[in-house]
Amino acid sequence: MLCFHSKVSSLHDSEKLISNEKKKFSDYDDDLYKFYHLEESQIQGNSNGFKVDSQIRKNVVDWLIQTHYEQKLMPETFYLCVNILDRVLSKINFEVKTMEKLKLIGLSSLLLASKYEQRKAVGVYHVEYMADYIYMPEEICQMEKLILQELGWILTVPTPYVFLVRNVKACVSSDEDKIMENMVFFFSELSLTNHSIVCDYKPSLIAACSVYCARFVVERYPFWSNDLKMCTGYSEENLLSCAHVMMKSCIQICGEGIMEVFKKFSSLYQCRVSCVAQEFLKV
């Protein structure tokens, strides 16, 4: 089975970026990403069929960010988890009315994503612990089966993370440029809490806009370049609509300062980039 982050190196788990420009991308990367761009259009959540309140979804995804971070899971696992969650919410024939029900779907999605991405998958009893034992193992397994049935067992999908790996390599000037790297991931993760971004824009566009918004906040000029256009496949004009929504979400999250995604990226390990964004935006 082809794994969509396949042999591309992980950036957000402390692996070093390759400094030699000529070695940033392998010979087959262009063909690989052409394939990703084709596939992303076919497997995506649909906001038209969404059967959950957007605020409940926002809270649950934010909680999943905290849970994923505390469990020290791979970033690929979280991005796939949200993809699974949104695709299920656009396919199920019943309305999810409570946060408890959506948390169950979210945790079951995290369980599936970990089985796909982690070398050592999260177990059912571990998931039960994450949820403070409010769900029985049987409930979690039953929801896991329902998710797989609804998705037709399709878990091989290109998430924004696949494109972020390539984009960060292109926009980070050195191995020490951790502020830019973390700012890109801050924008990417906060965007996942907004269902209109996730469902209305392609993963590759979300990844490109994360770089664009990060460069704007960190004040890296130019905000967009021909190299980034070549790398992402998007011109600056293509980014503006999604970037506008992403910046609005950032302003709201930084203004409140209480969401888990803000707290996560306010740590010294993440270079306090959410606080940098908060100060830049003066909210």
UniProtKB/TrEMBL annotation:
One of its GO terms (cellular component) is nucleus. One of its GO terms (molecular function) is cyclin-dependent protein serine/threonine kinase regulator activity. It comes from the Eukaryota. Residues 62-149, 162-248 form the Cyclin-like domain. PROSITE patterns: CYCLINS. GO terms for biological process: cell division; G1/S transition of mitotic cell cycle. Keywords: Cell cycle, Cell division, Cyclin. Residues 158-279 form the Cyclin C-terminal domain. Interacts with the CDC2 protein kinase to form a serine/threonine kinase holoenzyme complex also known as maturation promoting factor (MPF). The cyclin subunit imparts substrate specificity to the complex. Belongs to the cyclin family. Cyclin AB subfamily. This is B-like cyclin. It comes from Medicago truncatula.
